[in-house]
Design the sequence.
């Protein structure tokens, strides 16, 4: 028996496909070849802020044990499925597959993957590691797909992780509106949370388990365990047929992309950060669009932006005052002609609130009514009893703040795949369990037969 890790990346395009679907097709074809799966297929989200990756930036890894005599057949089957199901005509789609042999994944490869999740990695480093570890890499078109494929191999999800059960549509339904019973999703959410998450958007009530594009995904149920996502799946009523479903183990909802840095000067474009600072520029509200403020420390200043779709987070960002101490979480956009280096906020933790003070006119010493100013330096007059004074002065009054010392997170509808939602705090898993449920994969044979006729 040999241990083989198969990394796959970049088979899809905005107009079709999904690398998770390709992985699911490969699983189906590998089972008859006598392989045993050492883990659920791993769905690894890499840095969502890489400029040339506009979508979810997800790569896949299958970890199997197999008979050495069948290795060639396994590799051929994999490459054949990747080739046939990739949108090779699309300019930005450059699939890559990496075969890595070995029981364990080397530390150097894990470090490469960490960099691919939190920053930017170089093609030449990927190629060097492939050679160093005697892995085999197959690239379609350019070599770019190898980076993600290798990175998927290097994330074994031994720390915090989650699961997603993805159900796929039959080919004739792809591109049409998805048909689910909304009430069944509401019910499922109610009965399974917090062991499932981000089924619905709490602010709008919108169903979030269904994507909107032409891809083959009917829905995806995210959760803490394989059992939980399977239970959720059983409760959702699909009106259209399901072609297949597969449970993936993933870094979704773990904040794996965010890297805490010590000072603002260490912020680099495209490297998502967690950084502490003091609000140094009051929020500028751009109506119906976003809120921008700046934070600084003794090393530098950086802009932070909260966008309209982020709902509550944007509303709370509006309330900030200079002097507030916060921790900003988010991707970093490079400086351009129009704006400086900017953190696109995913979360905001309030650590300290500056007092909000206002000046108030004095109260009338005779009747206690609030007095009116008669103009700068001209004193005050009581509107009720007419008492006048040039000696009384305005007083400083501290007002309450509409902010608390806590963590504010973007609404689920605008969260990145990697963003840890509020509902997951306290549910983080310190390690992985090696046990797998037996039914983590299903193919609707009857639907497939209809297609081939
Ligand atoms: Zn008065």
Sequence:
């Amino acid at each position: 028996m040999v241990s083989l890790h198969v990394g796959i990346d970049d088979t899809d395009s905005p107009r079709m496909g999904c690398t998770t679907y390709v992985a699911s097709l490969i699983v189906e074809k590998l089972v008859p070849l006598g392989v045993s799966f050492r883990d659920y297929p791993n769905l690894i989200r890499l840095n969502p802020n890489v400029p040339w990756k506009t979508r979810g930036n997800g790569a896949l890894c299958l970890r199997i044990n197999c008979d050495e005599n069948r290795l060639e057949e396994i590799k051929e089957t994999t490459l054949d499925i990747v080739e046939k199901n990739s949108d090779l005509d699309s300019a930005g789609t450059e699939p890559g597959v990496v075969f890595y042999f070995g029981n364990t994944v080397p530390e150097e490869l894990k470090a490469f993957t960490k960099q691919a999740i939190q920053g930017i990695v170089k093609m030449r480093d990927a190629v060097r590691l492939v050679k160093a570890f005697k892995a085999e890499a197959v690239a379609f078109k350019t070599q770019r797909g190898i980076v993600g494929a290798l990175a998927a191999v290097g994330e074994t999800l031994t720390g915090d992780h989650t699961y997603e059960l993805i159900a796929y549509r039959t080919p004739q339904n792809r591109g049409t509106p998805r048909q689910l019973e909304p009430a069944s999703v509401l019910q499922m959410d109610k009965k399974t949370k917090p062991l499932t998450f981000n089924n619905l958007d709490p602010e709008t009530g919108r169903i979030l388990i269904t994507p909107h594009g032409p891809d083959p995904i009917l829905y995806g149920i995210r959760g803490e365990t394989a059992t939980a996502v399977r239970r959720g799946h059983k409760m959702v009523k699909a009106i259209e047929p399901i072609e297949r479903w597969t449970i993936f183990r993933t870094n979704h909802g773990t904040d794996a992309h965010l890297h805490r840095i010590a000072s603002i000067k260490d912020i680099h474009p495209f490297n998502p950060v967690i950084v502490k600072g003091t609000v140094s520029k009051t929020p500028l509200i751009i109506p119906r669009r976003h809120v921008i403020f700046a934070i600084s420390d003794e090393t530098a200043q950086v802009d932070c932006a909260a966008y309209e779709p982020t709902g509550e987070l944007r509303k709370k960002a509006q309330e900030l005052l200079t002097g507030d101490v916060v921790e900003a979480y988010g991707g970093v956009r490079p400086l351009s002609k129009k704006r400086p280096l900017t953190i696109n906020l995913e979360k905001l933790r309030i650590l300290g609130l500056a007092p909000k003070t206002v000046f108030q006119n004095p109260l009338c010493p005779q009747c206690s009514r609030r007095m009116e100013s008669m103009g700068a330096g001209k004193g005050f007059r009581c509107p009720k009893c007419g008492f006048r004074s040039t000696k009384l002065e305005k007083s400083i009054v501290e007002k309450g703040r509409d902010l608390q010392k806590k963590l504010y997170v973007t609404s689920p509808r605008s969260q990145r795949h990697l963003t840890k939602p509020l509902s997951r705090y306290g549910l983080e898993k310190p390690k992985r369990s090696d046990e797998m449920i037996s039914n983590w994969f299903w193919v609707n044979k009857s639907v497939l037969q209809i297609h081939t006729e």
Notes: The chain has a mean pLDDT of 91. The first strand starts at residue 2 and ends at 9.
